Amino acid sequence: MSSAEFTVGHLVWRLAMKWRTAVDRALAPLGLTHAQYVVLSSLLALDRPSQRELADHTGLEALYVSKLARSLEASGFISRARDSTDTRTVRLELTPHGRSTVEPAVAVVRALLYQLTAPLGDRSSAFSRDLTALLAVPLS
């Protein structure tokens, strides 16, 4: 099958796999996986989100976020605390160790993203808008 015959779905899947593999390899020296990076970098942008809010933000399953959060807490990257008004809710926050680990990781991933999108040139903003539109389409 030539590349001209690949479906859009196949190409999206291949790009997602290429990206995940590249991020995993780039972050290995920092001791992080792609999934851990997604959680930690999201915590840089969010103010003490609940695990559910973080799952919604990242697109990860809530159960997976819960599992990742427990692991990241055990490693000292984040703290988990019950919400003061709703004890069923667990709030997440970066620890100083988590912040000092994720900040250089953000720079590594940013450089990798620049490398990946360089062939798009000035079309990268339009590509980002197109991807955002596709993510907004309900499929269930």
UniProtKB/TrEMBL annotation:
SUPFAM superfamilies: Winged helix' DNA-binding domain. The keyword DNA-binding applies. It holds the Pfam family MarR. InterPro entries: HTH_MarR-typ, MarR/SlyA-like, WH-like_DNA-bd_sf, WH_DNA-bd_sf. The keyword Phosphoprotein does not apply. It comes from the Bacteria. Residues 5-140 form the HTH marR-type domain. Keywords: DNA-binding, Transcription, Transcription regulation. PANTHER family: TRANSCRIPTIONAL REGULATOR SLYA, TRANSCRIPTIONAL REGULATOR, MARR FAMILY. This is MarR family winged helix-turn-helix transcriptional regulator. It comes from Lentzea rhizosphaerae.
